[in-house]
Amino acid sequence: MASSGDGDNNRDHDESRMPKDMKGLLRLCAEVSDPSNENKTSQEIVNQLDPEKQVFLEKALSDLTVNPVQRMKECIHIIKTTPDTDDGIENKLQALEELLEWCGHIDFAIDFHKIGGFEVFSSLLNHEDAELRWTCLELVADLVQNNPYCQKAVLENNLLPVLLESLDKDQNSTVKTKALYALSCLCRDNEDGQKLFTEQDGFSVLMRAMQTDVEKLKIKASFMLNSMCTSHPSYKDILCDIGMVEQFIGLITQEHGPLQEHVMNALLTLITDHDRARDIAQQPQLNLHDILKERLTVLQDKPEFEEEKEYAERILKLISSNGGSSGNQDVFR
User: Fold this and answer.
1) How far apart are CA 198 and CA 77, in angstroms?
2) Which residues, in sequence order, are CB contacts of 121 under 8 Å at separation 6+?
3) DSSP class of 256
4) Whose CA, among 86, 158, 227, 267, lies 20 to 30 Å from 257?
């Protein structure tokens, strides 16, 4: 009986030590990390911390008691009902920022859809305030990233054409970039998303994105094209139809920067195991062979560009075979 009683006493002691406020939480953490803190008062332990750490702990304890679904409902209500004054827009942005935090968790992202969160998208994506537009697009991206449930919900709500419209027509470069980010998250490993993207002429929209002067947009578009062609080689025919091979080569000739590595990689994927794309790349008027040889000369002895150098060498090998204008013997001369 004594043994049982001791167990009950230990359990009661443990339960009495469970934190009920910031100081209690701090004491528990401090005692675990350093047993010498056991004899210090909570206030003494608090006084040891800088204000930033105190704020962090207070937020940590608060998060333990918050109801995520209720908080998301309140944020949705703010977005729906707050007037578009300067303060109102700021309140909407704060609500969106909180939703971004919650919807980074897949279960809460699903809850967001179930409680009617998608109802705010129409007004936000068409709002005159660019920051509201791009923050909303970031929220869409977070919802659909690796989340089949929300990917399906976005498609069913016919949001993919809206994302393409934002990428293609919006005058704000950050909005364009966030729209492309959302599209990429929506279509990645999503057969239905990729099918609709193709039916909506999404590849032409991507090509126009690569013709802007926004380098970040070009890099992300190159990455998405590379990813889609890797998973579905059949898309290469569409890219040949719209002149993407020539587009890539044109981008390679631009002033050297971070973009070229991604474009080289995408071009390599496009012409690998695809005779038509390779034949286009071999056309004498495009002068790709000499462009790449010149680039390899520039990149020589620069280890930070090793990947780009590898892509260029592999492209040269492909276009210099089977009828290439310069022949295999010239590839690495």
Assistant:
1) 35
2) 136, 140, 157, 159, 162
3) P
4) 227
Decide: helix, strand or coil at residue 116: coil
**Spatial contact of 71 and 63, defined as CB atoms under 8 Å apart:** no
**How big is the chain by its Cα radius of gyration, in Å?**
28
Instruction: For residue 229, give every residue at least 6 positions away whose Cβ sits within 8 Å of its Cβ, in sequence order, or none.
Output: 235, 236, 239, 266, 269, 270
Give residues with Cβ within 8 angstroms of 234, minimum separation 6: none
Token pair of 4 as six digits: 């049982």
Contact present, 102 and 68 (Cβ < 8 Å): yes
- Name the one residue in this structure whose structure tokens are 């701090």: 26
Q: Which amino acid is present at 260?
A: Q
First vs last Cα of the chain: how many Å apart? 89
Q: What is the residue-level pLDDT of the chain in tens, covering all 333 positions? A: 444 444 444 444 444 444 445 555 555 565 545 656 556 665 666 667 677 776 776 666 655 567 999 999 999 999 999 999 999 999 999 999 999 999 999 999 999 999 999 999 999 999 999 999 999 999 999 999 999 999 999 999 999 999 999 999 999 999 999 999 999 999 999 999 999 999 999 999 999 999 999 999 999 999 999 999 999 999 999 999 999 999 999 999 998 999 999 999 999 999 999 999 999 999 999 999 999 999 999 999 899 999 999 999 999 999 997 544 333 334 333
Which residues are within 8 A (CB) of 16 and not within 5 positions of it... i.e. 6 or more apart?
none
